[in-house]
Amino acid sequence: MTASPEHAHDSFVRRHVGTDPDTQRHMLEVLGYESLDEMLTAAVPHTILLDTEGQGGAGSAASIVPEGITEPAALAELRALADRNTVRRSLIGLGYHGTHTPAVIQRNVLENPAWYTAYTPYQPEISQGRLEALLTFQTMICDLTGMDVSNASTLDEATSAAEALMLARRTAKRNGNVFLVDADTLPATKAVLKGRADGLGIELREVDFATEGAPEGEYFGALIQYPGASGRVWDPRDVISEVKSTKAVAIVSADLLALTMLASPGTLGADVTVGTSQRFGIPLGFGGPHAGFVAVRKGLERQLPGRLVGVSVDAEGNPAYRLSLQTREQHIRREKATSAITTAQVLLAVMAAMYAVYHGPEGLTRIGRTVADRTAALADLLRRSGFELVRESFFDTLEVRATGVAADLSASLRDAGYLVHTGGDDIVHLSLDETITPADLEAISAAFAPHAPNPGQELQDADSGSGWDGLVREDPFLQHPVFSSFRSETAMMRYLRRLADRDFALDRGMIPLGSCTMKLNSATEMAGITWAGFNALHPFAPARTSRATSR
Amino acid sequence: MSAELLYSKDHEWVRVESDGVAVIGVTDYAAEQLGDVVYVDLPEVDDEITAGTEMGEIESTKSVSDLFSPLSGTVLEINDAVVDTPELVNSSPFEEGWLLKARFEQLPDDLLSAEDYKAFTES
User: Fold this and answer.
1) Which of A63, A158, A197, B77 is the most exposed place for a label (fewest CB within 10 A)?
2) What are the tens digits of pLDDT across the range A377-397?
3) For position A51, what pLDDT does the model report?
4) How sure is the predictor about A5, in pLDDT bands with cuts at 50, 70 and 90?
5) Cross-chain residue pair A332–B62, CB shorter than 8 Å
6) Which domain holds residue B78?
7) For domain A360-451, which CATH number applies: 1.10.10.10, 3.40.50.300, 3.90.1150.10, 3.40.605.10?
8) Measuring CA to CA, which residue among A308, A312, A434 is closest to residue A368?
């Protein structure tokens, strides 16, 4: 263990294990051992020591674990892996969308140890900065969804949906064993719901709510995707009120960016809204983690899973933040806890909240409208080119009927640098996002042209909103001053610094509470998460394009 | 503690108000054991409750306990005041801190007198 290269000057081990060879030698002398191996062999029961010699005895770690390498070598290996992934712009959508992480947020939050080395904010006196940021996240979610209380946060949208399923089960105990799932639900959400329902003995029943409405019969909850995974924008008011009339819980899984333009689930009557904040500045990251959320109407807050930040007062009567209800989950309710979820995506929730702080209501609305208008412009061009759209009411997602040529279209788009989803031989499914520029629209249109019945059409400006009757958002959101105070980079940087200064994380000293979230993420380990080779991959990108990540 | 009341071994009290109608609450002994009560989860009006089975939850700053129904019957009324102000369970367990009113056919045989309940809690 004392041989190089582990103890080479800039080896990873040397930089991250506190003792140097001299100290180790001294400690071994005091303990009466010649080497670390000898000490381990004496200390660890033989039955659990790795048998590398086939002798039933102890083997040396070096014979099983590869030799240590230096940090520069580790970075080079990571870089080579990232380069083996092929990153194309994703138009796949289905719950994962391209987004711009503002540089001020990437540098001052994601890459700042004051934010990424902090422990769970159980000690409010050393966590006021993060707690304020998380309260901002909750405010953003409540405003956009029209719900009364939101948690902060869950692992992703699918996990949020599974937690909402369990919430419905607890709330509507007398409504039997069936949970209704919108046929137009995102595939990842369907998969996680199935896993959870199987484990709990719940029967999932798929219903195409938009065309069939709410069915007869007994059920304890229903999940409606809004807008649908297919892109469909439709009015779920009647379905929601039907579901609630049976005392079942009406859950809406909503797209936050769409909610800048469309009526909120709260105004449509939902009991619960779930979703993800991914497209608010969180990179695709091959599917996660992203900060999801569960938000509820008044009366269900005690059923809310995960963490919840509340406003209290400190010993001197000044406003102060602290975790509410969540500590009760772990420390008081224990085996009667509403959920086993104790995991939150604090860093990513903070990033999403700061994305909303930086853009503000008018900025988010502009992004939402631009995405919708560009989608409308593309739809208009495709129609004039002779393609038929499966649905005429959409926000950012189109399904194009391309009988027999879906694969060819997909290939043309891939050659132009874009990935789309195909439904069989006849449907091309594509979603636009805030990263799609007019030049991208031209390139996408050009890729469609060779397969079009009437090629040669020009893109024209178009207005979104077709088919949104009664669904146009009218109520304001993000009216709190925090969402209109930090528009310049300097102001934003100073705000983030001010918040970070109120926290005590590993960047200042040891945190006297520790467990799974004692976060010593080394700078070398963190480097790769901002590289496109890893973070710009869509989870449904073709396997051959993500070879290195999947290895 | 009051002599006119009946008690269950799950620490609920029962006061028969009129023919077939009883008020239910938790005893001062239970309230003291629980500590500061912060949340009471009760069944809904018209719900059926069954003697000895869970009918709700009572949560204090240090624990959560199931509420077991002391009798079988139908919920007639719940005490909204105790839902809004759960600390009434501590400050006035036998009066303002009552939980619900229920209609019953017949009281279970195993309810205790004040004297027997006192002996039970001291044993």
Assistant:
1) A63
2) 999 999 999 999 999 999 999
3) 62
4) very low
5) yes
6) 6-105
7) 3.90.1150.10
8) A434
Query: Which chain A residue has the Cα nearest residue B66?
Result: A336
What whole-number distance in Å separates Cα of residue A233 and Cα of residue A211?
Answer: 12
Q: What is the mean pLDDT of residues A152-177?
A: 92
Check CB contact under 8 Å for B63 and A302.
no
Judge whether residue A551 has pLDDT over 60: yes
Q: DSSP state, A257? A: T
Residues of chain B in contact with residue A310, where contact means CB-CB under 8 angstroms, are: none
**pLDDT for residue A32 is more than 60:** yes
Question: How far, in Å, CA of A42 to CA of A1, rounded?
Answer: 16
The reply to whether B120 falls in a domain is: no
Shortest CA gap A247–chain B (Å): 12
> What mean pLDDT is reported for chain A?
90
User: Which of A332, A333, A338 to probe by mutation at the B interface, max B CB count within 10 Å?
Assistant: A332
The pTM score is 0.89
Cα separation, A497 vs A177, in Å, equals 50
Cα separation, A293 vs A136, whole angstroms: 13
CATH code where residue B10 lies: 2.40.50.100
B61–A333 C-beta distance less than 8 A: no
pLDDT value at A332 more than 70: no
Q: Total domain count for chain B?
A: 1
Instruction: Kindly state the greatest CA–CA separation across chain B.
Output: 38
pLDDT in tens, B69-117: 999 999 999 999 999 999 999 999 999 999 999 999 999 999 999 999 9
Q: Mark out chain B residues that contact chain A at CB-CB < 8 A.
A: 39, 41, 57, 59, 61-64
> Is residue B104 a contact partner of residue B18, using CB atoms and an 8 Å limit?
no
Contact A332 B59 (CB under 8 A): yes
Give the minimum alpha-carbon distance from A333 to chain B in angstroms, rounded to a whole number. 6
Residue A476 identity = P
Q: Is residue B84 part of a domain?
A: yes
d(CA A291, CA A190) in angstroms, rounded, equals 18
Contact status, residue A485 vs residue A476, Cβ threshold 8 Å: no
Return the residue in A328, A330, A331, A335 with the most chain B beta carbons within 10 A, the one to mutate for interface testing: A328
Length of chain B: 123
Domain regions of chain A by residue span: 12-63, 360-451
Q: Is residue B123, in this structure, part of any structural domain at all? A: no
Reported as a single tens digit per residue, the pLDDT across A491-542 is 999 999 999 999 998 889 877 665 555 567 788 888 999 999 999 999 999 8
**Inter-chain touch A336–B62, beta carbons under 8 Å:** no
| Residues of B in Cβ contact (< 8 Å) with A336 | 57, 64
State whether A336 and B64 contact (CB < 8 Å).
Answer: yes
Two tokens, residue A503? 């926290």
Q: Which residues of B touch A302 (CB under 8 A)?
A: 39, 41
Greatest extent of chain A over all pairs of C-alpha atoms, in Å: 86
